[in-house]
Amino acid sequence: MMQLETFVFNPLQENTFVLYDETKECVIIDPGCYDKSEQYELEEFIAHKGLIVKMLLNTHCHVDHVLGNYFVKEKYKVKLLIHEKDEITLKAVQAYAPAYGFHQYQPSLADGFLNEGDTISFGNQSLKVLFVPGHAPGHIAFFNEKEQILIGGDVLFYNSIGRTDLPGGNYDTLIQSIHQKLFTLPDTTKVYPGHGQDTTIGFEKRTNPFCALTYSN
């Protein structure tokens, strides 16, 4: 059975996830740990659970989701995997990170690329890659079909959606991603977003003021 641990890191209150199971293998998604105390919190959890980090994944590469990439890569000697269309997003962080107050940001490059339909495997688990642009040009999400869990990044939030006013963002594209890729998942799918509380696909289809589906007789 897949287990999930959430950490809320950095001043932008970003959700970092560690996914693991009984084999002790794990993946780290969107490490937002910036300062030493946040890095220690993540490191201590992994050590306490005796986990073996297999890879590092980014849903997308805005600053708040990649602050800990360098730390994780160096500490656990793992590869960073992203969507190729977000490589430019990742490379841009070094230029604007100081404007957000992240003067000690250490850049890191992707080691490989993920595409729609790819499968990430660790332990006894598998994550399907969904391409969901709109918030960022190379935004992806990770779906565990067996457990019906979606690590969604900054696409769909509890009664909200990701912003589209950043470089590479597009509102119509984002709504299309939600309707065509996320709202076709089972209603019981639990969504763990990049910020804020978790939700479900069914709840957002009914109630989200930005993208809820409407039905006519």
From TrEMBL:
SMART domains: Lactamase_B. The keyword Iron does not apply. It comes from Chryseosolibacter indicus. SUPFAM superfamilies: Metallo-hydrolase/oxidoreductase. The lineage of its organism: Bacteria, Pseudomonadati, Bacteroidota, Cytophagia, Cytophagales. Its cofactor is Zn(2+). Residues 13-195 form the Metallo-beta-lactamase domain. PANTHER family: HYDROXYACYLGLUTATHIONE HYDROLASE GLOC. Signal peptide: none annotated. Gene3D superfamilies: Ribonuclease Z/Hydroxyacylglutathione hydrolase-like (3.60.15.10). This is MBL fold metallo-hydrolase. The keyword DNA-binding does not apply.
